Amino acid sequence: EVDTFMFAGHDTTAMAIAWNCYLIALHPEVQKKVQEELDMVLGEHKTEDISTENLKDLKYLECVVKESQRLCPSVPVIGRTVTKPFTLGNYVLPEGTSVEIFIYGLHRDPEVFPDPEVFDPDRFLLENCASRHPFAFIPFSAGSRNCIGKYDR
User: Fold this and answer.
1) DSSP letter for each residue of 81-145
2) What's the number of CA atoms in the CB half-sphere (13 Å) around residue 14?
3) What's the pTM?
4) Computed from CA positions of residues 106, 107, 113, 115, in that sequence, does the dihedral angle turn out positive or negative?
């Protein structure tokens, strides 16, 4: 349990923050838009802690974080066990079969994410992702074994 807590609770968060900083630094145009949004939302209160209410208004920053998680998932592969026979194409996976979900690859499907290697936070603007399948982007996994630390509004 301690190992799970340390990996899932700390390493993943540290990696997500590091990748966000790296990708923002590589893309000055994104950095500029994030700074402009922060200035607009926080106004003269820039030196105070950011509130939950402020976070709700930082829409572009949210897109940046999601795009960073898409390109650099903290956990690129997750394992699951088949709980009942499951047909996948021409194959039947029997109950008890271990399967791996390759999140890194899933997030780079060019049919879902055109130019998948390009850092483009705009792909997470509401109008650009409204029709996307809900499981096309799963940085925190999905379903009953979802990440317990996932924050969702």
Assistant:
1) E-SS-EEETTEEEPTT-EEEEEHHHHTT-TTTSSSTTS--GGGGSHHHHTTS-TTS--BTB-GGG
2) 6
3) 0.81
4) negative
**129 in a known ligand binding site:** no
Q: Which two tokens stand for residue 132?
A: 């996307």
Residue 13 pLDDT > 70, yes or no?
yes
* Residue 106: closest CA among 70, 53, 62: 70
Under 8 Å between Cβ of 43 and 51: no
Domain spans in the chain, listed from the N-terminal domain onward: 2-75+103-145
Question: What sign for the dihedral angle of Cα 69, 33, 124, 55?
Answer: positive
* pLDDT tens sequence across 49-104: 888 889 999 999 999 999 999 999 988 888 889 999 999 999 999 999 999 999 99
Give the H or E element holding residue 9. none
- The percent helix, strand, coil of the chain (3-state, each to 5) is 50, 10, 40
The confidence score (pLDDT) of residue 47 equals: 73
User: In the beta sheet, which residues pair with residue 91?
Assistant: 88
